[in-house]
Amino acid sequence: MKKVNEEIKRQILGLLAVVLFVGTIWGIVNSWYFALAREYTRNHFVELALPYRESFIGAIKERFALVEGLASFASAVPEETVSTAFNDFAAGIFDEKKGIRNISIAPGGIQKYVYPLRTNEIVSGHNLLKDPRPEVQKDIKLAMETGELIISGPYELRQGGQGLIARKALFRDDSFQGLVTIVLDMPPIYRESGIQDARKISITLLDAQQRLFFGPEPGENPINLKMQITDEVWQMLVMPKNSWQIEYFRVMQPFFFMTIIIALFSGGGLFLLARKMFSLSRKARLEQLRYKNLFNSISDAIFVTDEQRRIIDANQPALQSMFGYDLDEIAGKDTSLIYASRSDFDKIGNLLSEKSTDRTGTLLEVALKRKDGSVFPAEISIPRYLDNRGKTIGKIGIIRDITDRKLAREALHREIEEKKTLLREIHHRVKNNLNIVASLLNLQKNEFQTEVSARQSFDDMAKRIHSMAMIHDSLYNSGSLSSVTMSTYIRKLISELNASLGRPPLIRIDADLEDIQLNITSAVPCGILINELITNAIKHAFRDRSEGRIHVSLGKKTGTHTIVLTVKDNGSGLNPDFSLESSASLGMRLIQLLTSQLDGTLSYNSNQGATFSVEFEE
């Protein structure tokens, strides 16, 4: 899962890098295109404004040329005829050009001749040399000093309205003679030049002193067109009717439209790409999750290592259950920590380094070590760990704990050996049992004196053979087939003997038994011996009584392996002169014979009945 998350991060970073790259390229192109659009837009507005500038300059200069004509007229016409000729000359000028407020000649600085007089009475007779306005005094002084055409304004005129005054001093023989003045009315000039009615551009006019005399306050970054008016430089500031941003946007509309289309297509493409990548990432995560679940569900421990046998990954559940480690504890360490000995680790390493032998499918049995130090047998297969190009980049160790298998194998071997032994013993037992039967028959033959005794002898023989059969039945019903639980056998024998004594039984048989296991060699004679002792007690202990009790015990002496079998009754006891050596009874002889087969010792007493005890080694 960690690798999948890293892959998703790489994909997201890749997308972000693409977006950042595209955004950077777009920013560069946008800046470049905006600079072009700005330059184009401003040049376009310059082209729009130039005709207005030329028209305005032309209108002003045409009217200033009239001042030169008026000065020539005033210098050429004798003063005595000026009064009659001035009105005709001024009327011609006045009619030729619109926007002339008045025309005047001021001999000695006093405005004596004014046309038209009707609207300009306020200036008639005005002594310009004594005008209280500083700007007027400055301009008149400059005109008298330079003899050039001097302009004043535009500013508010005394007779009202905005006007531009052009003056020129008259000299004769370097002597000041007076002034000629034309007052221009600016609004008609604005209309004539078209700047007042300009539709696409906003025009602001500044005089040489940077005073605004026409148009609105200029906005940000106006286009500044210089205008040479006589010896002054005026400025025409040009702005779009709308803001520059709107004009720039109009020019850049195709670019923005194209950008939007590209952004939509690019965004759509990136979205589809991202969707595809996330879909693939989701599939990869699911595949990784399935792989991890499968990887962790395997009961065998799987180690993924690099070529130096350092641990990269492992299936945590199996690692924990088999070795007791968490992956974090051993990640980055070499696999020697799981081997029982360094020699086993080196041996496996030597096998892996053999280039000529492909050990991919080879199963190797080694001793491995858990975290707690306990050692267990394991089966290990070590295929190669390949990258997507088929290059070996490490090893994959697949480890199986074969402790149970080895135990099962050993148990199977033991069972097979046991059965082989039992098969051999069966032949031996059958032979021995037949020999026992033959010996019993040989002992019993002397008892066949009458038909009744013969029947009784055969009945006794059948019981003895049945006791042998019960031993074999107990043996074959046991788990090991090599030993008999004598307590189970004795209880079953007592149960059958009790059943043979009638209902209700007059003689009661009980037992005190320990769980003692005897092999078949000891179990057969012991079983016949128990049967013989109980049968003898039933036959002989209660001849003069109608009821009695027989007690059977089987156990070990404390702290030894000596088994003690005791059969005790509360009958009449043994005869005072009883002796095993002198007894001619078949039962007594058989008891002695069976005790001898057990390598045991037989003892007896007659205290409150008869007691027979047999001791033999387990």
UniProtKB/TrEMBL annotation:
Its EC number is 2.7.13.3. Residues 287-371 form the PAS domain. It catalyses: ATP + protein L-histidine = ADP + protein N-phospho-L-histidine. GO terms for molecular function: ATP binding; protein histidine kinase activity. It holds the Pfam family HATPase_c. The keyword Protein transport does not apply. Keywords: ATP-binding, Kinase, Membrane, Nucleotide-binding, Phosphoprotein, Transferase, Transmembrane, Transmembrane helix, Virulence. Residues 362-414 form the PAC domain. The keyword Membrane applies. This is histidine kinase. It comes from Marispirochaeta aestuarii.
